Amino acid sequence: MSVISAIFVVLITILMPPAGVFAISGCSVDFFVNICLTLLGYLPGHIHAFYLEYVYYDRKEQNRLGRFAARPAPGVYSDRIQSGGQGYGTIVEDPLVQSEEGRAGATGQ
Predict the structure, then answer these.
(1) Residue 96: what are its φ and ψ, rounded to 5°?
(2) CB neighbours of 63 closer than 8 A, spacing ≥ 6?
């Protein structure tokens, strides 16, 4: 399903770059930056849109494999793109932190 959605977003981006960015980031700063770049020139809008899509789908794949990016991607302002679409509505605590809290409680500290 992810491959089909990626192809669909790329096709939308070829026709109109801000629409492709809106599909992955929603109404965010990246969307408005892309509108400005597209108005300045069609090519800068395309470059920016494809870069955001690359970061989004790369982070999404990394999350699927259980690896998380250590640093935010440069020039990306949307948390949705930075996280690969993960993290909305849930907060998952680090298992290491949970086990340390459990040990501290068990030893009476």
Answers:
(1) -65, -40
(2) 83, 84, 86
Mind listing the pLDDT tens digit of every residue in the chain (109 residues)?
578 888 999 999 999 999 999 999 889 899 999 999 999 988 999 999 999 999 998 888 888 888 877 788 888 888 888 888 776 545 555 555 555 555 555 555 5
The angle formed by the CA atoms of residues 51, 79 and 22, to the nearest 5 degrees, is 55
> Are 46 and 13 contacting, i.e. CB atoms less than 8 angstroms apart?
yes
User: Domain map of the chain by residue range?
Assistant: 2-107
Buried b (16+ CB within 10 A) or exposed e, 43-78: eebbebbbbbbebbbebbeebeeeeeeeeebeebbb
Q: Tokens 């597209």 identify what position?
A: 38
